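Structure ticket #2291
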Amino acid sequence: MNKASSSFIIFLMLILIKEYAIAQEAVYVKKNGEFTVEKDSADFKRVVYELDSSINVFPIVDFYLTGKIKSRSFVTTVDPPIYQGQKVDYYPNGKTMLNAHYEKGKMVGDVYSYYPNGKLYAIKECRDTIYNPINGEFERQYLIKSAKDSLGNDIVLEGKGYYVEYDKETLSKVIAEGSILNGQWDREVKGKELNEGLTYVETYELGKLILGVAKDNAGKEYTYKEVSVPAGYKGGMDAFYKYLMKEVRYPHVAQNKKIQGKVFLRFVIENNGLISHIQIINKVNSSLADEAIRVVNKSGVWEPAKRRGKAVRSIFRIPINFSIGN
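Resolution: structure written out below.
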């Protein structure tokens, strides 16, 4: 995508969004995507405009709490947001941070990222996603097609060079650096896991992790062959569903009224495997919700997630189905 095409798409987005004079009520949103009525606990404000029935999308504008625009996008569903089409993110200073395209909620094609000074940082091709258990989100996996330093000098050309990866929020902290070949990490990569206080050295062969060694602030070392390992029920998820079949008691009130449905739960698995902060994330009969919470609470100690070999607090989501047989 050339600069002229990109500018036209952004201009078109602005025109489309301005056509929607009536917005739904603004909501405050936390960084993990949860809604909140308290501005002080929010990370940004979201305004969802009326559905454009001709293309079946809702225009969305997110705002920093300062009032400046954080992003412009379109979604086919609001909660959770499933992005469709162009999405542009902005720095607090108003400069473009990221310009990407989505199809059915997945980022696809070339992604353009920029430094806070407005200069192009990198052009990446979105190839895949991997689950990050720490925040319960899927992280994009890219091929690095080209990259520049903040002065505009080339550091990666045609998928080859020495790439420096920065934190995505401010592009001010180096989080990983190493050789790139065919758009992927190759040989030694050094980095930092800022949230977990880890530094690490990893060895790659054309994007495949061979071995990683991380060290925490106390000097403890962790070796690993997978960057992220999700939390799980001891014995595996098949064992968990067998536990549900044995433990779930269909609430009499719901059963008598023939109330059925799926209860979607989100909960935290602490780094010691204990469950906390159980939430119901869909509208469902209260008796079904209470029973789902009860059985999850009673499910015991889980295997915690691991990030670069270290046990970490993570977010987990599951559905529990209540169905009355014929």
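Closing remark: Residues 3-229 form one domain.
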